[in-house]
Amino acid sequence: MKRAGQRVVLGTEAPQTSQTSKKQKTSLYGSVFGEPALGTSMDWGSLPHHVILRVFQFLTLVDRARASSVCRRWNEVFHIPDLWRRFEFELSQPATSYLKSTHPDLIQQIIKRHADHLQYVSFKVDSSTESAEAACDILSQLVNCSIKTLGLISTAKPSFMNVSKAHFASALTVVFVNSKSLSSIKIDDTPLDDPSLKVLVANNSDTLKLLKMSSCPHVSPAGILCVADQCHGLKELALNYYILSDELLLALSSEKHVDLEHLRIDVVSENPGQAEFHTIKKQSWDALVKHSPKVNIVMYFFLYEDEFDVFFREETPVTHLYFGRAVSKAMLGRIGMNCPRLIELVVCANGLQPLDDELIQIAERCKNLTAMGLGECEVTCRGFIEFVKMCGGRLTQLSIMEEVLIPDSDYSLDQLHLEVSKHLGRMWFPDMMPTW
């Protein structure tokens, strides 16, 4: 006689069969979805090498080093060559820098075990001479390297400029001679000299494509011509305006194999009123463009307003212009008149005079303009809309701070957003000044 609530089970094996089936399902699902079955734990040490390698590539250097001590398998992955193709040495003095310096023990381990694996290498140093000298010491030890890209980056001056020219040249020579595959080099603000360039091209003439060496006072036009003459694959060159001359442009234009795609020129004034800038003739610019018709001529200006006088008084084939300091209305007017190849214009600051006429003139005459950025300037809403209307959908990049735009009797800021969006063919809003 059964009691109330008592369940009748037909066959004593039924519950066991049900539990077995449930365990089998759990085991099956765990196998299919890569999850551990109930009652088991994940063996992280048995993960495939390629999975661990992928994880390591997302870790910071410190975390990667810590992870390598988890087990033997992870330590093996830590030393796989693919993990060391790209590396940035951070060198700083703790008392004077916010940078976290790469640990000396790790640096020595890299030099000992991975120097021949390094391909994309950069050195980020603070402003101290000690850090720059440490970078040179590391370069001097890369005798088995096969570097393709090398960048020397100083977060502030003077850094590398305070290193003796002999020490710097000796360190670079090790890399230039042993790599024989350098394609991209960034050595701005360093004591690079002509003899170093000769060593570079003698060993890497077939591979060098990009050379950035702005603010290298020991380099002469002869050094530049040495690079252009021997590096037939050179596509991008960055230098300081002080080294640019009519003779250099004409020489670059006479080399049949030279086909520059980018010429970057930094125009920098360290001491206002103490530097006199020379003029480059229109004929010299024209020769370069005729020789390399697709070349982008990029100019970065860090001058004071009274130092712009020699620039853009006649037609100049510049394609990209960046003004890091205030530039006058008169200078912007010259750009509208004499820069027909202009593609991109960025103005950090101007003053408190509306730039309506200047922008409209730029829109009329610079038919290739596709990108514009304005910082601390003033433009009326009506003038800005007229500028956008004339440029139309070819303006693929338009970055204007909201504070730049002055509402007028024709348009408010809300109306401006709708009108500009209509002419661009896409939704557009002015940039907002961050509040933090």
Keywords:
436 residues, alpha/beta, Monooxygenase, Leucine-rich repeat, LRR (right-handed beta-alpha superhelix), 12-stranded parallel beta sheet, two-stranded parallel sheet, 15 helices, globular, disordered N terminus
Structural description of this entry:
It is found in: Cytoplasm; Nucleus. Residues 41-87 form the F-box domain. The chain is an alpha/beta fold and 436 residues long. The chain is built from 15 helices and 14 strands. The protein starts with 13 loop residues before the first helix and ends in a 12-residue tail after the last helix. Residues 1-18 and 20-35 have low confidence and may be disordered.
Mean pLDDT: 85
First-to-last CA distance: 79 Å
Order of helices and strands: HHHHEHEHEHEHEHEHEHEEHEHEEHEEH
Low-confidence segments, given as residue ranges, are: 1-18, 20-35
Number of helices: 15
Q: Strand order, biggest sheet?
A: 1-2-3-4-5-6-7-8-9-10-11-13
Rg over CA atoms, rounded to whole Å, is 31 Å
Strand content: 15-25%
Instruction: Specify the biggest β-sheet.
Output: 12 strands, parallel
CATH architecture of the domain at 309-435: Alpha-Beta Horseshoe
**Helix/strand-derived class?**
alpha/beta
Compute the number of strand runs.
Answer: 14
Net shape: globular
CATH class term of the domain at 309-435: Alpha Beta
- CATH fold name of the domain at 309-435: Leucine-rich repeat, LRR (right-handed beta-alpha superhelix)
What is the helix content? 25-40%
